[in-house]
């Protein structure tokens, strides 16, 4: 069955539209009603609800009923014809005055929409009277025009510029300008939906509570749909016309979260059939945003892979800027965990399970796999950059620093929950192996110089050890261990490698060879080295 138009609904008689005073008509003469209406019109004040007295409203209803009766009787008497003209003219005048009063009271309805306000009560009385006396179209037209103008003005005051949301304008905008527009839209959206549209919906159903069923929904739809659709189309316009790049991801997610959060309100406010296009638009916008977000995440992964090797020269094996950038990005991304679980529906396009070791891959969420894959890509890039160091110990230190920073970031945010214990434990063990590789390749050869089994050249071996030890202190003074706990661990491992070996050699040779440093001296030198040099500077610990 075809949906009824507003005009056809207004033309339908409805018992709800019969005013409460209708049953008093029989006790009042038609001349009394004419006199009451004329008197009210002559003293009319559109700015006051006093003009809307019960006697006036009752009289207009009486005149309308009498007019219908005369028209139905098909009487051709001259007196009857004259009476018809008189009553019709008087009703026309009364309705014109009511329309002006309706405009006034609608204009002065506050944004807070107190349902007990005099303006709302007056507007309800006027609407009920106009609809019950056959002037429903005039009433609705006035109401729609006034409220539509009010809604648009409210949105303009919020900062909404309908022309600026057109695709041709969005495509031409610099990102900085569009970024500001997105932030403005994000802040406006809850106000538009939960305040302006919600209030408009409530007011419409209140004013037209006595009208036939579906009339308030049709009126509300006419008032709000065009401007609301224009406003809610903006996220889709951005998603479709935006060139994917990593810095734009979070604005897309902002809009997705706002629309997703507002969807229950939109389904409630725009749930009727006449306004269903608004809900359909929001669903469409969420779909387009999801597609754009997936494209940007793929672009982000590609940007990591394309990071040039000539950017690998980080002094002292410190944390690489790429590592900081990716981890800060992922940490921020993890705040959108709930939304990303909805958005990410497939594994990353380049994810190769034959090289990608994630335990129980089938049991993981798409988000977990996506994050783990991006980290795998980052670690592969860090591995390739480590190969550019000529000193093996420094290469291991670079790997340890960067992996430890990655683990620290994971454990400090939602990434810990997303990736799980198994990922963290596996990479902690890997970081430990890097630390061991750094200590072994940097200090083990000095320990071997002091081997007791090596009986030849005691003095020469001591001289070589001290020379190598001092050289290491000088050459490595600018090396960096950013993590405090890792620095302490390295110090203990170096002490464990050098001091016992030196003590054994010292115990065996102190009576035969003049030895300048005791084992405690060597230990203090190691301690000071890891406390006083750049190794303890923390090099950008955030």
From TrEMBL:
Short name of any one Pfam family annotated for the protein: Exo70_C
GO BP term (any one): exocytosis
Record carries keyword Membrane: no
Domain named Exocyst complex subunit Exo70 C-terminal: residues: 184-526
CC terms in the record's Gene Ontology section: exocyst
Assigned keywords, A-Z: Exocytosis, Protein transport, Transport
Molecular function terms, GO-annotated: phosphatidylinositol-4,5-bisphosphate binding
Highest taxon of the lineage: Eukaryota
Database matches in Gene3D superfamilies: Exocyst complex component Exo70
Family of the protein in this entry: Belongs to the EXO70 family.
PANTHER family: EXOCYST COMPLEX PROTEIN EXO70 (PTHR12542), EXOCYST SUBUNIT EXO70 FAMILY PROTEIN (PTHR12542:SF17)
Its biological purpose: Component of the exocyst complex.
Protein name: Exocyst subunit Exo70 family protein
Record organism: Rhynchospora pubera
